[in-house]
Amino acid sequence: MNFQEPKEILLTIFKWIFICSLIGFFSGSASALFLISLEFVTQFRIHHGWIVWFLPIGGLLVGLSYYYWGKSVVKGNNLLLEEYENPKDIIPFKMAPLVLLGTLLTHLFGGSAGREGTAVQMGGAIADQFTKIFNLNNSERKILIILGISAGFASVFGTPLAGAIFALEVLYFSKISFKSILLSFSVAFVAYFTVEIWQVKHTHYSIPVVSEFNFTTLLYTVIIGILSGLAALLFSRSTHFWSSLFSKNIKYPPLRPFIGGIILAIAIAGFGFTKFSGLGVPVIIDSFSNANPWYDFLIKILFTGFTLGAGFKGGEVTPLFFVGATLGSALSLIIPMPIALLAGIGFVAVFSGATHTPIACTIMGMELFGIQPGIFIAIACTTAYFSSGSVGIYKSQIVKGAKYKLYQKIQRKELKNL
Question: Does the global pTM surpass 0.90?
Fold first, then answer.
């Protein structure tokens, strides 16, 4: 027996515990700073509505910063997915400050964007720096990217279980090692509690009344899941459409958010669409108790797709929450189920469809709303996952598993019929 083996195993365990602790702490701290700053710029914009007219200037600043200093990290979340699939170069640390400042500028001046992309990119950039420090190989580097995504997601939303699963699922769950699963959960909780230590609060939602589960409510839930999947499909295609349109017609990248900012400023300030600026959290909260107009979710899709497609920075997830919650809320006018339950189902189901992560979204729904509506959430998230098409918000995401097989069969049948 080699007596060095137990020692090496212990050293490996302590090494990864140490790495998880560092990534969790630094990513959680970065998210805490981001959330505090985001709240400050949001409140400033709300109390100084005139600042929206400076959105083109904010867009120009974002565009110039990425054009001259951030070309290597401009892909954002897609860069993390690409480096996981085919590890090449360590993600530059500058991704973290660039996306932080870019997102704050977007929200300060009224762009429609989210926050998860920022936290995930900061977490990924921070985590990947440990590749050099600990002299890790490509296989171990993949684990670091998982840990960065997990820490960023868990800390920004206050959902450690969903954060851990999201990082694994978005990178194709069946190819993830058991070690990665354990470490992903570990770093998610470290990052989550780090934000708690900094005393930064997350938004809380509530579903006070849950319908009885029977055939009728099952049917309604499937319908909501299908509609949520179609909304997710529209959201993803919208973002990609505007991005392609700006890229083809405006060759100088910094001008894209500048011109986009002019159009957005006129729409938001000139035509009174201020409720669609920023995260839209007040609208999300209100949708759990008051029915939204049927068109609110469509306008949010348009504004967010245009904002991100023009080159502004931020995430897609909170706008997806907005889309899902307002869609579910509007459906309460025709579906005889509690409005908060419908809003909550839509909240996570649209997210599931857009990111191809039904397991993480189901867990997130139960973390946010409790165990009781879990069966409705699970059914809607799975239905939305299958009905949202093969392209999500992350172009570089490789979709595998049951959904991939289903669409492969559909494509083969279409080819035979040609």
Answer: yes
